[in-house]
Amino acid sequence: MKNIAILCSGGDVSGMNAALKRFVEYSIGKGLRPYFVDHGFDGLIDNNIYEACYSDVAGIISRGGTKIHSSRSKRFMEQSYRKQAIDNLKSHNIGYLVVLGGDGSFKGMQALSDESEGLSFAGIPATIDNDIAGTEYCLGVDTALNVIKYAIDSIRDTASSFSRAFVIEAMGRESGYLALVSALTSGAEMCLIPEIPYDLDNYKSCFQKQRIEGRDYFIAVVSEALKNSEEVAQWFEEELGVESRITVLGHIQRGGNTTVYDRLMAFHFVTQAINGLLEGNKSSVICYGDGGFNHKKIEEVAYKKYQINPELLKLGREFGCHI
Ligand SMILES: Nc1ncnc2c1ncn2[C@@H]1O[C@H](COP(=O)(O)OP(=O)(O)O)[C@@H](O)[C@H]1O
Ligand SMILES: O=P(O)(O)OC[C@H]1O[C@](O)(COP(=O)(O)O)[C@@H](O)[C@@H]1O
Hints:
The structure is a single chain. This protein is an alpha/beta fold. Helices cover about 40% and strands about 20% of the residues. It has 11 helices and 11 strands. The structure holds adenosine-5'-diphosphate (ADP) and 1,6-di-O-phosphono-beta-D-fructofuranose. InterPro entries: ATP_PFK, ATP_PFK_prok-type, PFKA_ATP_prok, Phosphofructokinase_CS, Phosphofructokinase_dom, PKF_sf. It is an enzyme of class 2 (transferase). Catalyzes the phosphorylation of D-fructose 6-phosphate to fructose 1,6-bisphosphate by ATP, the first committing step of glycolysis.
């Protein structure tokens, strides 16, 4: 019997627990012995590795976060610690490792793969930022978008009651994906993301006209990368005379009951990862695109810059009153 392990690394997402459930059930179904690594790469270094069974994954499918914890491991950047990690995997006779994480985690996985023999690796893109090159979808994005949707819908209730402008800051690190999709699907008036240059003055006359015609509140969704929430809120007050408030959504975007779509994607990603390993893939990342899954080399994914789909960007450019 071959032993297979899984770990979660980098920012957690809602959908990791669903993936863990599928991992245990499908591994056992395929005649593999499943192991959990607790606390990501730190857990690999510290030998926090234990055999998992059905009862470990009972009742977790709906829960955000990850039952086996995640980490951002500074030590893992050093080869001596990665050697320790490899020795620990070998001490449990683990031949396969599945890594749930983002591009940073895949760089770590690549290093492990380069520095070990006899071990095979599969990466599953999991980040609410949805910013991994080569895949249209990363596990957890749908749940995060739904959390943001509920938040903006609630903010609209109070914004309209007080005739205010709300500047809502979405996560995404350097990527505007979360902010853009949220702005589009929430009917926001303004969307500012790093991928699209902006000039607040372009909004002025149009927003003034809208106010004369009866608009009495504004929703602006901005990416955390721009660090401009204060500036935008001040602009609404000074240039439009509209009282404004800022809401930084923060880490609520990382939690919450996993959506049906993310549960299904967790199921598919894990199935693909395990099938690929059993078919002999040594190190790959499972990517989703054009309605199907494919297995890509780590370097094709982890070292390339993610670009938002051009159709979405086109819609993003329509904010700003010039359409
Ligand atoms: N170049 C690298 N070499 C080895 N490990 C890395 C490298 N880059 C990132 N990692 C590991 O991956 C972890 C997760 O990366 P991080 O960028 O925080 O999250 P994400 O995987 O979501 O992008 C880091 O804390 C580190 O342990
Ligand atoms: O939880 P932390 O360490 O404060 O990190 C916050 C960052 O993590 C994220 O939520 C997710 O990023 P990763 O998936 O790349 O780790 C970013 O959107 C955000 O900028």
